[in-house]
Structures are given as C-alpha cells and as structure tokens.
TrEMBL record:
SMART domains: HNHc. This is HNH nuclease domain-containing protein. Residues 315-367 form the HNH nuclease domain. It comes from Geodermatophilus sabuli. It holds the Pfam family DUF222. InterPro entries: DUF222, HNH_nuc.
Amino acid sequence: MDGVAVELDALVGAELALLAAPQLLDRLRGLLSAQNRIAAEIARTVRECEVTGAAEYDGLKSMQSWLRGHGRLSSAAAGRVVRAGRVLAQLPAVAAACAEGAVSAERVAVIAPITRDEHLTAAAAQGVELAEVDGVLAEVAATGSYDDLRQVVQHYLDRLDPDGREPDPTEGRSVTIARHADGSLTARVELDAVGGEKFCTALESRVQAGRGAGDIRTRTQQLGDALVQLCDNALAAGGLPILRTVKPHVVVRVDLDDLADPAPGPGAAELGFGARISAARARWLSCDASISRIVMTPEGVPLDLGRDKRVVTPHLRRAVEHRDRGCVFTGCGAPTHWCDAHHLLEWINGGETNPANSALLCERHHTKVHHGFRVERQPDGRWRTWRPDGTEILLGPPLHAAAA
C-alpha cells in the first residue's frame, strides 16, 4: 500500500498544463484502468472481510456499516461495494477482467442480478453452466457498450423464466421525493419499460418544442425544464382531479405589504407544501395568477356565508387552509389536501359556514370528531383536542427532554 501511495503522489505532482491532447487522453485511459483495478481490489478485500467477520474487530456488525463509518461512504455506495465483492466471488472471469482494469464497478453492478439466489437456483434447475455465462459476460463487459451489457444481462434473465407470469407494471413504479431546507427537492423515478417510454416521450416532446437557436442549456437542464412545463400545462388545463372542492393549483401565501414592496424579501412567502420563497419570487408568480385577498373579518372577501350555504366554498376553504395549514387534531398535522372542512357546530344544528365555525380535519380525524372526540380553537389561535371521556389529548415533551 505504501508503494501505491508513492505512485499516486507522483501522479498528483505532474504538471498537466504541459501535456498535449494525446498525452492527456493516454493519461486518462491509464487512470481509468487503474481506477477499475483498484475498485476490483476493494471489492475483493471487502468480500474477504465479510466472510471472516472483520468488521467485528471495530465493533461493527457488517461491512456495509463499516464502510459507512470508517470508509465515509453513503449507504448506497457501501451497498454497491459489498454487492460487487459478492458478485466477483461467484464470477471469476468477470473478476479477472476487473483486475486487469477492463471492467468498471458500474458494469459489475449491471451484472449483479445474475448472482441473486433465485436466479442461480433457476439456472441450476435448467442445467445452465455458470462458468459459460461468466465468460460471455466478461467478454461483453470488457469490449461491448454499456447498453450491450444491459441487454445481454436482461436477455439471460428473461430466458431463465420464459413462461413466467407477465409482471404487473405498477409493481416497479415509484417516485421518491426528498425535500431540502431551501425548498428545492430531489426526486428519484423508477418506472417499468412502458411507463418509462411514456415518460421519456412526454419529456422529449417538450424538449424538442422548446429548442431554439442559442440554447445553451445542458441536456439535464432541458429535461428539468420540460418536466416543469408538463406540470404547468396539466395545471393550466384544469383537467386534474379536484382536491376537496378546489382545483389543484400552486399556492403562495404572502402578506400584502411584502407583495407590494419592491424589496427582494427573502423567505417572506410560503408555498402550499411548506417551502419558503422570497417576496420577489412571489411577485413573479403573481404575474400570471389569481390573487385572493384573505381577510379574517367581515371586510374584504365575503368569508361569512351565513346559513344559506352548507358546503364550504373554494374561497372560504382557502381562508381556512391559510389559517390551519393542516389537520388540527392534536398530533396529526396531515396536509391540507387530505382534509375536510368540518363544521364545529353542525350545520343541521344551526352552525354557520364561516371561518369561526370551520376546522380542517383529515378523514380519519373527521370521523373521530363525529364519534365523540372534540376539537376547539382557543383565543390565541391554538387548537386543543379532547377524548370522548373529556380528557385532553396532549403532546408529550420532546424526546431529548423525556430522556433527560
């Protein structure tokens, strides 16, 4: 390992600006080959650590946890390294190609499904020689394109179960959304082949329609803009399902003073799903929007509908959503689009349709309130909840305080 470190130190010290293009590319090819060889050796070492239980030496249960803690890897990256070690242990020809620097860790991940227990069992039942498959995979992985390797692996897996049931396309579909502190989000989309084709076709139509001379956006930026445009079109068309009497729309809550003030006003406005944006961006959105003035008094928008209307109207609902922000049942807080607008004093018993007599409750807690539970808004705006026996439901102390 000391020798490897010395060689790397020499590489790091090289003056790249003095190299011509052919020399730079030759250097890069060598580095990529070395990267593949190092990745193969890491995977082989991790596998041996896993077999011998080496992680226990540092008090850890698995090599995946060791790689997260001591190797500073993410959970996903640690999992890939552990799986790579298992794959190379079962496919010696692929392992040899990796050791020579011809196959990358990314391509090993493509091959990995072949070594799953269910696929190995199916291959053994059909008399498939894994050594022959190993040799073919090593050749394709080392000389073919990434797509060639994916197709070969998928073809092999399909042949293992030619008479199996056609999979339900919805089983493999998922969208995972991670929201960040600044309101931005990261999404991971998993789709079956047909769903993926529809997704790509729709995005590509927007990308191509939006291309013009001088467009300097990257491909990923074009796709991101296309996705937002598809959402804009769907929302503007008005054909999406109605949510609790209100058509789906982007909600921006901002004080009138901030909306009128030309200052940027960072964090002055709140979006419907909780992200905060600047007043400047809220003004930008308001250029093409319907603006509702929400006043919790008899002036302004006529919020008090008296006794002539039983169903909460869209503008009244928006006012209640603005006030409650979600289900008011203690400990719930379900988002507004899950909630009904509940009459605290039932309409049939003389209750009026106005903000003072309305509360947002999700379906579960709306049912609870109609079966003995009770919610009540205090003068300071806080909501309290009581059980049918009259005892109040209270939130416990913070976990760190409870543990103290």
